[in-house]
Input
Amino acid sequence: MTFLRRTFVAMASTAVLCASFSALAQDIKPRLIRFGYGLNEQSNQGRAAKVFADEVARLSGGKMKVRAIGAAALGPDNQMQQALIGGAQEMMVGSTATLVGITKEMALWDTPFLISNTKEADILLDGPIGEKVSAKLQDKGLVGLAYWENGFRNLTNSKRAITKMEDMNGIKLRVMQNNVFLSSFQTLGANAIPMAFSELFSALETKTVDGQENPFNTILSSKFYEVQKYMTVTNHVYSPWIVTVSKKWWDGLSKDEQKVLSDAAKTSRDFERKDTRDEASKAMANLKAKGMEINELSPAEATRMRDKLTKVYALIAADVGMDLWNETQAELKKIRAA
Ligand code: TK8
Output
């Protein structure tokens, strides 16, 4: 070895040592973390799960290992939530809407047209209201670490273009397993059928249901365009995902280990939101190219649907409590005025 090379090798190993030194100095034990999610690896959810896993490895000097398991291989959202509560699984990311049966305050995020753009979403979810709702999970055996973006939801179906509310009549529409979504789409005249996301593609393929609603990204990554001809841009609700941890398991972690997970959840959140927005901005053209017929509602029809949907507001306010409902409205007013 030449002197130069020896020096370089020594310098490089010092750099590696320094990088992992802070992790070594911390109270971090070897940990294996099963991190489940519902979409496939090629989705925005899958890409961000990978960023989370890499970040946990980096921050823990390789001691904490995240095994990200997608495509609902550990079960649909509801089943994973129960596994977390029972301590049989460590972590997951999934829809807040599927948590409503466990923590009723989560229904806040199901409010149609509550959030009208991503700026409002970020401020509201990362601020005191989002924190408050997330903190409610603790009494139920879960710890919420960060909200990721699922996105603004749009309607697809295999029957016909939806240009007016009446077109929804008789459409068998899969909804998430949640009473707000059920009431919302019943109110619009659809035949709403609650079903786990993991069963959705085959239900659409076999025509057990005619349609569904999800953000552009999911319609693309789950290949719904193969079994759905029509898409209507409704943006009827902004759906968050939430990264959760089993509280039973979390309580046994050191402060340093907990910090690794919270920090990695936030880094992956920032990546995920950007990635999701980039993909969503190109998705419409992409879905058209795949053969979908896409229409936007006329402003008059959009208003009609919106007026109908606001009838479920009373139901949601009762679920989440009047105080939280009013605080949310006040917070949104503040965000909009800023
Ligand atoms: C994935 C689901 C999905 C959600 C749904 O597990 O169920 O439609 O939008 O993202 O959480």
Summary: The chain has 13 helices and ten strands. Residues 38-39, 77, 94-95, 98, 150, 176, 197, 214, 218, 239 surround D-xylonic acid (CB under 6 Å). The mean pLDDT is 94.
